[in-house]
Amino acid sequence: MDVIRLGLAGFGTVGTGLARILDTNGERIAKRLGKRIEIRRVLVRDLTKQRTFDPGTGVAFTTDPDVLVNDPDIDIVVELMGGLDTAKALMLKAFGAGKHVVTANKHLLAVDGLELFEAASASGVGLMFEASCAGGIPIVQTLKENLAGDEVVKMLGIVNGTANYILSEMTTKGMDFTIALSEAQALGYAEADPTFDIEGFDTAHKLCVLIRMAFGVDYPLDELPVQGITTVTPMDIEFARRFGYRIKLLAHAMTSDGRLEAGVHPALVPYTYLLARVGGNYNAVRLEGNAVGPIMLHGQGAGDLPTGSAVLADIMNLARQTTGRCDILDNTGFRNQPIPRADIVPPGESESKFYFRFTVADRTGVMASITRSMADHGVSIAQAVQDGEAGAKGVPLVIISHETRADAAQAVVAEVDAMDFSVEPCVSFRIL
Ligand code: NAP
Ligand code: HSE
């Protein structure tokens, strides 16, 4: 039987996940494919590190990336290291050596994806990235193949397992943010630098990759509005619950008069929506096509086996290639290149309802000043609640607005924060 030989760059959470699946499902995979998939070499940083899984005696470990790309016996380089420079150099060398690459590296794809796809296609090799977005959910393949004939008009999703795990644990168990983050790290969900997860950057990386696949345009990462979950407190979760919502970190993108509106924000999601019920490390993506209508994909968005499963799907797709060559269509789902820049709706123009939590001194005239500021900026109030007794820290005053422009909401926050009764900066989130 033919053998597809892998060079694994990285043997951490996802690398060992892939190795475990190959170990458990190897026979089944060989039957389906008519080929065996074997790991031949593994690139790591530290050869002395204790590994949680032994890939077998036939697997050689190295710390030299060149050993992987120069080995003529390796068919596919599987990049599961993360990071930018080393991973990019490894991929370019692999393309040059005529090797396909499978990667889970959304950060690199968001930053240098266009260049890497060009380079892969120029060498006639594949650059596959199912695991880069939403872990085990087959979102890339869905956009590339299944919805290729649709015009996607809207995409909304939870695509970071760590942030969703933290918010879920805070909501359902009252867990402290820091403890929930530590647990997510221990479970292998978090990025090497977890600020990527909690500040929304990882969600932004995935959104950039998904926008290319869904809308066929490039939304530059540094222009994407991004808000993380570090300002979400147990108090906000409780207020959200009282108003009938759960707080989720969302990625959204939609076409609007030929332009593209997109961003990453924590948002209050009505608890009756499916998205509000996506818990733990699970992700979900809701897509709306002009032919298919709305569809929803749901599954584990982070972790060793779910992500390893997505990596394996790409490896098997490459192994099924009969010509041995891949072009730009195989890799990106689009024949026409280069992918044009998106015509972007300025973030300030995007509209939604907003949740504002002001922390103010409990004294006469405060509410009047805030509502005057809102009226001046055209922000209409739907509901308001003030709780608690005045204390050293002031009292929370929560206002839910009707639909309003993001720049108007920001102007209110800036104005009220500067008023002498404001005890803490206002916390504001969108409402779905
Ligand atoms: P990880 O557990 O930190 O593992 C990283 C592996 O890469 C380790 O084996 C490390 O070697 C090796 N490595 C890192 N830098 C290296 C370098 N410069 N040279 C050689 N080896 C290097 O990371 P992970 O969670 O598996 O994530 C890997 C990639 O998958 C990242 O791009 C991540 O964003 C993405 N991803 C992760 C998940 C997830 O659930 N974890 C899901 C989807 C996508 P040592 O073991 O010697 O330190
Ligand atoms: N850190 C990422 C997450 C891994 O938590 O979603 C999956 O991409």
TrEMBL record:
<dbReference type="GO" id="GO:0050661">
    <property type="term" value="F:NADP binding"/>
</dbReference>
<feature type="domain" description="ACT">
    <location>
        <begin position="355"/>
        <end position="428"/>
    </location>
</feature>
<dbReference type="InterPro" id="IPR019811">
    <property type="entry name" value="HDH_CS"/>
</dbReference>
<dbReference type="GO" id="GO:0009086">
    <property type="term" value="P:methionine biosynthetic process"/>
</dbReference>
<keyword id="KW-0486">Methionine biosynthesis</keyword>
<dbReference type="InterPro" id="IPR045865">
    <property type="entry name" value="ACT-like_dom_sf"/>
</dbReference>
<comment type="pathway">
    <text>Amino-acid biosynthesis; L-threonine biosynthesis; L-threonine from L-aspartate: step 3/5.</text>
</comment>
<dbReference type="Pfam" id="PF00742">
    <property type="entry name" value="Homoserine_dh"/>
</dbReference>
<dbReference type="InterPro" id="IPR005106">
    <property type="entry name" value="Asp/hSer_DH_NAD-bd"/>
</dbReference>
<dbReference type="InterPro" id="IPR002912">
    <property type="entry name" value="ACT_dom"/>
</dbReference>
<protein>
    <recommendedName>
        <fullName>Homoserine dehydrogenase</fullName>
        <ecNumber>1.1.1.3</ecNumber>
    </recommendedName>
</protein>
<keyword id="KW-0791">Threonine biosynthesis</keyword>
<feature type="binding site">
    <location>
        <position position="191"/>
    </location>
    <ligand>
        <name>L-homoserine</name>
    </ligand>
</feature>
<dbReference type="GO" id="GO:0004412">
    <property type="term" value="F:homoserine dehydrogenase activity"/>
</dbReference>
<feature type="binding site">
    <location>
        <position position="106"/>
    </location>
    <ligand>
        <name>NADPH</name>
    </ligand>
</feature>
<dbReference type="InterPro" id="IPR016204">
    <property type="entry name" value="HDH"/>
</dbReference>
<dbReference type="InterPro" id="IPR001342">
    <property type="entry name" value="HDH_cat"/>
</dbReference>
<comment type="similarity">
    <text>Belongs to the homoserine dehydrogenase family.</text>
</comment>
<keyword id="KW-0028">Amino-acid biosynthesis</keyword>
<dbReference type="GO" id="GO:0009088">
    <property type="term" value="P:threonine biosynthetic process"/>
</dbReference>
<feature type="active site" description="Proton donor">
    <location>
        <position position="206"/>
    </location>
</feature>
<dbReference type="Pfam" id="PF03447">
    <property type="entry name" value="NAD_binding_3"/>
</dbReference>
<keyword id="KW-0521">NADP</keyword>
<comment type="pathway">
    <text>Amino-acid biosynthesis; L-methionine biosynthesis via de novo pathway; L-homoserine from L-aspartate: step 3/3.</text>
</comment>
<dbReference type="InterPro" id="IPR036291">
    <property type="entry name" value="NAD(P)-bd_dom_sf"/>
</dbReference>
<keyword id="KW-0560">Oxidoreductase</keyword>
<feature type="binding site">
    <location>
        <begin position="9"/>
        <end position="16"/>
    </location>
    <ligand>
        <name>NADP(+)</name>
    </ligand>
</feature>
